[in-house]
Design a protein that fits this description.
Elements: E1 4-7, H1 11-22, E2 28-31, H2 59-72, E3 76-78, E4 82-88, E5 91-96, E6 101-104, E7 107-109, E8 113-115, E9 131-132, H3 135-138, E10 146-150, H4 154-164, E11 169-173, H5 183-191, E12 195-198, E13 201-209, E14 212-220, E15 226-229, E16 234-236, E17 240-242, E18 277-279, H6 291-311
Parallel strand pairs: 1-2, 1-7, 2-3, 7-18, 9-16, 10-11, 10-16, 11-12
Antiparallel strand pairs: 4-5, 5-6, 8-17, 13-14, 14-15
């Protein structure tokens, strides 16, 4: 019987493992099919994590030190895929790929979310080298430079407002003739003189060279006209897929409360509505999708797990 099963090996899961093991739990396993690290390992440079400021350090470099520290205190890493989690009496049953199952007194789900791809030419080639899905993470690299945003919802326009305070010009490309964002957000965007809205258009191609992105080609879907937009930053905000499949029962229903987007509903202690089940990081509601916030969630969840187990011992 595990004290705690942690599902997911990004910043939230690894920090949960650190706090749980250093806090005295003896049998804690983190299930992560690949090497731990999460989405941040794809970042070309880290500048906004407090206390870490080394030019040229990649996300992979950054997360390697986390692994060493976390495993030092006794966290076990199982490279196994978790199929689902179920509550059975006072305990949980974690079912792994192949049918193996493990019991745990508590579970922290930190499987995150995956930014959706827009599937234009060059998107994968230049991802992390000019194409980004995080304005807060990468916006500063384009200070006083023009950038392009793809998307038409609240996130796209909110990030456009954020980038407008850093970049010289922000070009927002949306395939429809009207934006889906909340009216107050759209009104604020319209007042910004350096935000330019390009409707009825898509990104046809992102192009560049060995040094990264050089520009994008924007296609008007009504006229077919192609506009060449030379800049080195393209931000894609076309939604996220929440990685919540482990929380689905065999009949497809969720074992805990989620919102309309499949994000897990938690309180400030990362508790779900199921006793002993916690969610941390990008899988939860209102997640800021920042490494420092995910780490905070993981620490909070682990401290709550320790208290939860102590109450039952």
């Amino acid at each position: 019987m595990l004290d705690c099963a942690i599902i997911g090996g990004g910043p939230a899961g690894m920090t949960a493992g650190l706090y749980a093991t250093r806090g005295g739990l003896k049998n804690v396993v983190m299930f992560e099919l690949g090497m731990p690290g999460g989405q941040i390992t794809q970042s070309s440079e880290i500048e906004n994590y407090p206390g870490f400021f080394e030019h040229g350090k990649t996300g992979m470099d950054f997360m390697n030190t986390w692994q060493e520290q976390t495993f030092h205190f006794g966290l076990k890493h199982e490279m196994k895929k978790v199929e689902r989690v179920a509550k059975s009496g006072e305990h949980f049953v974690v079912t792994l790929e192949g049918g193996e199952s493990i019991e745990a007194m508590s579970v922290i789900v930190a499987t995150g979310s995956t930014p959706k791809r827009a599937n234009f030419k060059g998107e994968d080639e230049f991802f992390g080298k000019g194409v980004s899905t995080c304005a807060t993470c990468d916006g500063f690299f384009y200070k006083n430079k023009p950038v392009t945003i793809l998307g038409g919802g609240d996130t796209a326009l909110e990030e456009a407002l954020y980038l407008s305070n850093i970049c010289s010009d922000v070009y927002v490309v949306h395939r429809r003739d009207a934006f889906r964002a909340a009216p107050p957000t759209l009104e604020r965007v319209m007042k910004k003189t350096n935000i330019h809205l390009i409707t009825d258009s898509i990104i046809e191609e992102a192009y560049g060279g060995m040094m990264g992105l050089d520009g994008v080609k924007i296609k008007n879907i009504k006229t077919g006209e192609i506009t060449d937009m030379p800049n080195t930053g393209l931000f894609v905000f076309v939604g996220h897929d929440v990685n919540n499949s482990v929380l689905k029962d065999a009949d497809g229903t969720f074992i805990c409360a989620v919102n309309d987007w499949g994000q897990v509903i938690v309180d400030l202690s990362m508790k779900t509505n199921v006793e002993g089940l916690f969610a941390a990081g990008d899988i939860r509601i209102e997640a800021p999708k920042q490494v420092v916030c995910a780490a905070s969630d993981g620490a909070t969840a682990a401290l709550q797990v320790i208290a939860y187990i102590q109450e039952r011992s």
